[in-house]
Amino acid sequence: MVAAHPVHIVGGGxxxxxxxxxxxxxxxxxxxxxMRPVRSxxxxxxxxxxxxxxxxxxxxxxxxxxAVGLLHEEMRRCDSLVMRAADAARLPAGGALAVxxxxxxxxxxxxxxxxxxxxxxxxxxxxLPPADWGATIIxxxxxxxxxxxxxxxxxxxxxxxxxxxxxxxxxxxxxxDQTKTWRQSRYDKGDGADYINCAFDKAQYEQFVAALLAxxxxxxxxxxxxxxxFNGCLPIEVMAARGPDxxxxxxxxxxxxxxxxxxxxxxxxxxxxxxxxxxxxxxxxGFQTKLRHAEQLRVFRTIPGLExxxxxxxxxxxxxxxxxxxxxxxxxxxxxxxxxxxFAGQITGVEGYVESAAIGLLAGRFAAAEQAGDAIIPPPPTxxxxxxxxxxxxxxxxxxxxxMNVNFGLFPPLAAGVxxxxxxxxxxxxxxxxxxxxxxAWLVPANLAAE
Length: 451
Hints:
Elements: E1 7-10, H1 14-25, E2 30-34, E3 57-60, H2 67-77, H3 81-88, E4 90-91, E5 96-99, H4 101-114, E6 118-122, E7 136-138, H5 146-156, E8 164-167, E9 170-172, E10 181-183, E11 195-200, H6 202-214, H7 236-240, E12 268-274, E13 281-284, H8 293-300, E14 311-313, E15 316-319, H9 325-328, E16 334-335, E17 338-343, H10 353-371, H11 384-395, H12 427-443
Parallel strand pairs: 1-2, 1-7, 2-6, 7-17
Antiparallel strand pairs: 3-5, 4-5, 8-15, 9-13, 9-14, 10-11, 11-12, 12-13, 16-17
Helix pairs in contact: 1-10, 2-10, 2-12, 3-4
């Protein structure tokens, strides 16, 4: 039975397109609002739905050893339009899923135009959708129009929109060498051990600064160049260029900390702060950067205690529009202050094409279930879909929330006894198999499995 009122979706990118498909496949009428070609952006070159802007790669397709590959497989099992189009437009790329951009967006647009339950309106929405629209999904991405971004900021009270978002690297806790670090909060505040500290002597610090200044950074896209830095999150290489002691009196300041190995204050200290409720991920505090990824690995592994660090996310800095989802959204992706509005895609604080589409997939299903009067049941947190959803709606620290790719550090640990000495190298495949089994159990009773 089709609901009397449609689900309105603002934005025709990957998240909005996937949300529309999922909602319609579940029986809901959908009205999509896409501002192109009425109003274009500096990044898009066509008026097609789901245009890929920065890259034609959807990253690894390895469903056993890579979290994004697992997310691919979960989405396929949920009848994802984005994954259907990606598989149809696939190009040779080894273990990665790369696509022909035009064929990819053309496939998605054709499917949505052919779906009788979906109406596509080419128009700009410059404010918060009116209440009489009812169920609405905002999926406007990192290039949300200034007027809509201002309306969202006014509603949520958040002022982090339309600047560059500065992303600090995140390491897996298990890869930190605890023999070279110690736990202590500055001046023993909080419980006194909220941070993991990595100490530098004078020579180590000077070598680290020199390595930062010599490292290669990523250039801004043309459409980013005129967006100003947010002064509270300058890249560390920019701070280092302002003088040799800038970092040690900034994010690497050693005051209020005593290294128990020496009984003295270090010359400089890098602090790691817990980044998720599970305690599996740690954020390198203040280390937002534009360095190329290979350079980050080389330079950051010279930090004492991080010589063998494995990174769940490397640093970055680019134009973005996103909300502090852990504070503002409930587990059904609804805005707490206006529950008829959901958010999906990069604006929720996920990073990457696939992750954006995945949140669109969930938002579309949730909206359709709500229209039908059914209960909204989030996917288990042991799945890639569920882990990503749980992270942005409560698992992440709201105060330091920054965009995140899907990674195995977001998943709950395996049950005690599953991982043994003999199968320790199988940790990721074991987590992937658990995820797909739990996804199957979630799909069947909800009658959501792809036909």
